[in-house]
Specification:
Strand content: 25-35%
Largest sheet: 10 strands, mixed
Radius of gyration: 21 Å
Mean pLDDT: 95
CATH architecture of the largest domain: 3 Solenoid
Low-confidence stretches: none
Number of domains: 2
CATH topology of the largest domain: UDP N-Acetylglucosamine Acyltransferase, domain 1
Strand order of the largest sheet: 7-10-13-18-21-24-27-30-32-33
Structural class: mainly beta
Shape: globular
Length: 295
């Protein structure tokens, strides 16, 4: 896709032609990507993002833009970017072509479950219980279990306040559940925003009433307990424990083997094998020492 093809949709001026095959934030790292920047801070961050081939920015930031990228300027770069994204998601096959459902004969699907009419793959020996909803762009590999009332592939919560208006952001991606993932009752897993998948890897277990937001990636053999909230684009390694009612801020990274105690509010990255507790979460041993001092 060329920048010049999006001039009217984005209400922008193309300064330097460029091509892109994906959209996303500067931090996303998608190949051949279109992004936007509305401050000097983000312009400087572009030095670490060679994957971004096209950029929308404000006229006053134009001198900071690299000559190696396609460039467009707009009075509101964020609005232009999301206008383009929503248009591509609603009106084109930019984010992927539709396909007929592929459901294995060995899958057990309760008659009261709802499966979207297209763009769904359900593998061998999957179990789909009553009142489950599996929406478009959902891929369930083999032996996946979805317990009653859960929603796979929900439209995530993404809105932008722009010039006094609330602009919805289309979710153009999907959900990918690898072999032997198990989702307990009344959990919601939102699909990704800019194509691709919200992804849960092999043998992970998700408890009741968990919210997994768009673009989250959870590793292998993780245990995520009831009432956990995982914000958008959280990345979780393998063998992680997340206790009940924990909340993880968007874009946080949690290393393999980490342990998040119940009720923790995690706002910073957690290292491999680290234990954290509290609101806001800190190293678990420091948290225990602090609690002993004040009691």
């Amino acid at each position: 896709m060329k920048l010049s093809h999006m001039v009217e949709i984005g209400k922008m001026e193309v300064i330097r032609e460029g091509e892109f095959t994906s959209l996303g934030f500067i931090t996303h790292g998608y190949p051949v990507q279109l992004a936007y920047a509305e401050s000097e801070e983000y312009m400087h961050n572009l030095e670490m993002a060679p994957n971004i081939t096209c950029l929308i920015t404000a006229p006053e930031l134009r001198p900071l833009a690299s000559e190696n990228r396609g460039l467009a300027v707009s009075g509101n770069p964020r609005r232009s970017f999301y206008n383009i994204h929503n248009h591509l998601a609603r009106n084109t096959e930019f984010y992927g072509k539709h396909f007929e459902n592929q459901i294995a004969e060995t899958a057990s699907i309760h008659p009261k479950a709802f499966i979207a009419e297209r763009d769904v793959c359900i593998g061998e020996k999957c179990v789909i219980e009553p009142n489950v909803t599996v929406l478009e762009n959902s891929v369930l590999k083999n032996e996946v279990v979805i317990r009653a009332g859960s929603v796979i592939g929900g439209e995530g919560f993404a809105y932008n306040r722009i010039d006094g208006e609330i602009m919805p952001v289309c979710h153009a991606g999907g959900v990918l559940l690898h072999d032997r993932v198990e989702i307990q009752c009344n959990t919601v897993i939102d699909r990704a925003v800019f194509g691709g998948y919200t992804e849960i890897l092999e043998d992970t277990r998700i408890d009741n009433l968990v919210h997994v937001a768009h673009n989250v990636r959870i590793g292998r053999r993780c245990l995520v307990v009831a009432l956990v909230m995982l914000g958008g684009s959280v990345t979780i390694g393998d063998d992680v424990w997340i206790g009940p009612s924990a909340a993880i801020r968007p874009e946080v990274r949690i290393g393999s083997g980490a342990w998040i105690s119940m009720g923790s509010v995690v706002t910073n990255d957690v290292g491999p094998g680290q234990k954290v507790s509290g609101h806001f979460a800190i190293d678990h041993d420091k948290f225990i020492q602090f609690m002993r001092k004040i009691r």
